[in-house]
Design a protein that fits this description.
Helix 9 (about 165-180) packs antiparallel against helix 10 (about 185-200). Helix content is about 75%, strand content about 5%. It contains 27 helices and 5 strands. It starts with a helix and ends with a strand. A 5-stranded mixed beta sheet has the order 1-2-3-5-4, with helices on one face. It is mainly alpha-helical and about 675 residues long. Among the domains are: about 10-15 and about 120-260, Tetratricopeptide repeat domain (Serine Threonine Protein Phosphatase 5, Tetratricopeptide repeat); about 25-105, no CATH class; about 425-530; about 535-665, Histidine kinase-like ATPase, C-terminal domain (Heat Shock Protein 90, 2-Layer Sandwich). Strand 2 and strand 3 (about 605-615) form a beta hairpin. It has helices spanning about 5-10, 30-45, 50-65, 65-80, 85-100, 105-120, 125-145, 145-160, 165-180, 185-200, 205-225, 225-240, 245-265, 265-280, 285-300, 310-320, 325-340, 345-360, 365-380, 385-420, 425-500, 505-530, 530-535, 540-555, 570-590, 620-625, 630-640; strands at about 555-560, 595-605, 605-615, 645-650, 655-665. The chain is globular, with a radius of gyration of 34 Å.
């Protein structure tokens, strides 16, 4: 994590001043010169904004100009953000949003909402923030609001990158830059060059990244935007460190540090100190790095940059671990945990668990280290389980419902107004037609559900009987091969071995042939019903199968399998699970061109959960199921139905991912 400092604090430009935010509001035309002065102060020295904002606040109250009040709240929130007071910034953006809804000014609301999303950026889920920003872009597009289209597209690109959707990220930046060029918005064009330059650097195109960053810096100087200049210089320092020009990197960070201190940009000042600390660490100056990071921590606490405090504690803990000061490591991790609620709690907790394990391992406390590692892996895996995904979906749903309800309220008001103007008879007629339609739909829905459930029940019964019959037949064939034909061949082999009249060479040849036939019969028997399954159980059988796959194919196999006994699941159902996994593996070997696969089988809370994935070429499951020759997938589906389970083929960027849940009776 120490080496990731520069990546962690590379600065995407989410500049909230947005350059002349007051444009497009005729209600504030007479205050244009004062608003322009606030814009200038935000770019140079935010501490000078207060007097101008206070004056306009009083004017808004005196004249009842709510548009002006909304704008002053946006400016005040922006100023608070620039000095690191995020909570205060959000309060004023929320005030502006409420005012804009009251006066039904969507441009004002969008300007405040986009800024609020950027401010909660450090503690929010990128998937949810992406959907919120997409909604803002759609609204701005309808109004042809170019400025808010640019800033919402910029936000979308940032969140796409965090979600590893590189193509969508690049598309958003290109669309955004095109808008800025067409509208001749130089300030916006400069910070978009900054963001695109960082993306290119992370995609390993340093030369292209350098061109974007230096071009953006020229524009920032021409516009005399000190804040934008600091951000671009920090990222040029990041670029130089990536291409191992440490002296040039240090120069850029020192310049940015000096300028941010003079302009009182707390967040940028803090970032410069952290980046310099990381640079000293890369140069091998551990003590100097440690000193700079402690100074950054003090600044973060003093200026209330709370979201970053836990991360600095984690980095300091790693530095102390390198110095083998393990007592300090433990204390620093406790401090990181105490502040994690102000940033990204899951990310911080994961870091605490990981460093705890690494520290114990370096101290050669291997038993404690193993316990810590298991805790770390368990926590890391829990972040990706279905419960976490469901929670995120519920949060997104709540947001969507809230937004939809607000839209419905507005639509309802218009509808009631029109309804009052219409004749009562027509309204009653529409109501009667609606009631009849609802009753008809309810009856139709009830009939459809009943028909579907009856059909599904018959299909399950048929599938159950078919699968039971298939497994019984396999068992019978296996016994016949082993006990009948197999034994006969053994006896026959013994007779030939005892034969004294045969020539020695012929006898050896016959003996070899019979040995081969016997082994083939045994192999067939084992493939029909694995002996380990009945003798040892499901877990040893699967482990043997997976080990054989890795040994015979060269595919890297990972697995985590819980013990499942006949008390949990009958033997016939254990066979079904074994066949499902066997068929999934066969598909990977035959069709996927994969180099690795993973199987997870767990038993918890009365449920069996099976997760299977590989890194192959993937497949279109719906298309494959329509193919009459896709017997493998259909057999998997039948067995899962027989188990009263559910199967889901999830989309993945590479390979295939299958989730199966079986509820135990």
């Amino acid at each position: 994590m120490v080496r990731l400092l520069l990546v962690l604090f590379a600065l995407f430009c989410i500049d909230l001043s947005f350059g002349q935010v007051y444009e497009g509001f005729p209600e504030v035309e007479k205050y244009k010169s004062r608003l322009a002065k606030i814009d200038e102060y935000l770019q140079t020295d935010p501490s000078k904004c207060k007097a101008e904002i206070d004056f306009l606040d009083k004017e808004a109250e005196r004249t009842g100009n709510k548009t002006l009040k909304g704008l002053t709240d946006i400016y005040r929130g922006t100023a608070f953000y620039y000095v690191g007071l995020n909570d205060s910034a959000i309060v004023y953006f929320d005030n502006a949003i409420l005012i804009s809804r009251e006066i039904k000014n969507e441009k004002l609301r969008s300007s405040a909402s986009i800024r609020k999303i950027f401010v909660i950026d450090n503690s929010g889920d990128p998937g949810i923030l992406l959907h919120m920003m997409m909604d803002e872009y759609k609204d701005a597009s309808k109004r042809k609001d170019t400025s808010n289209m640019i800033y919402s597209l910029n936000g979308m690109a940032m969140y796409y990158e965090r979600l590893d959707s590189t193509k969508k990220c690049i598309d958003s930046y290109m669309q955004c830059i095109k808008l800025a060029q067409q509208s001749k918005k130089q300030f916006e064009y400069a910070f978009l060059l900054n963001n695109r330059g960082l993306l290119k650097l992370r995609l390993k195109s340093p030369h292209e990244a350098y061109k974007d960053l230096t071009e953006g810096l020229k524009i920032a100087k021409r516009l005399e935007s000190s804040r934008l200049e600091i951000i671009l210089r920090e990222n040029l320092g990041y670029y130089y460190s990536e291409v191992d020009s440490m002296d040039k990197a240090e120069q850029e960070h020192l310049y940015a540090l000096d300028l941010s201190k003079r302009k009182n940009y707390n967040l940028l000042w803090f970032n410069s100190m952290v980046n310099l600390g990381s640079l000293e660490r890369d140069k091998g100056n551990i003590d100097k790095s440690d000193s700079l990071l402690w100074s950054a921590l003090d600044l973060a606490k003093e200026r209330k940059i709370t979201y970053a405090i836990s991360k600095i504690y984690l980095i300091l803990a790693q530095l102390r671990m390198e110095k083998q000061d393990y007592k300090s490591v433990s204390a620093l991790l406790d401090s990181a945990s105490n502040y994690k609620q102000f940033g990204a709690p899951n990310e911080i907790q994961e870091g605490v668990y990981l460093i705890t394990y690494q520290s114990l391992e370096k101290q050669k406390k291997f038993e404690d280290a193993l316990i810590a590692y298991k805790r770390y892996r368990s926590f890391k895996d829990s972040l990706n389980d279905k419960g976490h995904i469901q929670l995120m979906n519920e949060m997104q749903l709540k947001y969507d419902v809230e937004k939809t309800e607000k839209e419905k309220i507005e639509q309802q008001r218009d509808y009631e107004q029109k309804l009052a103007e219409q004749q009562l008879n027509n309204a009653q007629l529409r109501l009667n037609i609606g009631l009849v339609s609802v009753i008809f739909l309810v009856l139709l829905g009830a009939f459809t559900i009943h028909h579907y459930r009856s059909k599904q029940k018959k299909e399950v019964e048929f599938t159950n009987a078919l699968v039971n019959k298939l497994e019984d037949e396999r068992s019978r064939i296996a016994r016949d091969l082993h006990d009948g034909l197999g034994q006969s061949l053994v006896i026959l082999k013994n007779k030939f071995t005892r034969s004294a009249t045969s020539k020695e060479s012929l006898q050896d040849e016959i003996d070899s042939d019979f040995s081969q036939v016997i082994e083939e019969v045994r192999s067939i028997s084992r493939s029909l019903v694995p002996p380990e399954l009945r003798r040892l159980g499901l877990k040893p059988s699967l482990e043997k199968l997976l080990n054989q796959v890795q040994f015979s194919t060269g595919i890297l196999v990972n697995y985590e399998i819980d013990e499942i006994t006949e008390n949990d699941l009958s033997q016939i159902n254990q066979v079904r699970i074994y066949r499902v996994i066997q068929e999934l593996i066969n598909n990977t070997i035959k069709h996927a061109n994969a180099t690795s696969l993973k199987v997870e089988l767990s038993l918890k809370n009365g449920m069996i959960e099976l997760s299977y994935m590989d890194n192959g070429i993937g497949m279109d499951v719906e298309k494959a199921m329509l193919n009459e020759n896709s017997l493998g997938l259909k057999s998997i589906d039948q067995r899962v139905r027989a188990l009263n389970g559910q199967i889901k083929y999830e989309k993945a960027e590479k390979g295939i991912r299958v989730k199966i849940r079986i509820k135990l009776l």
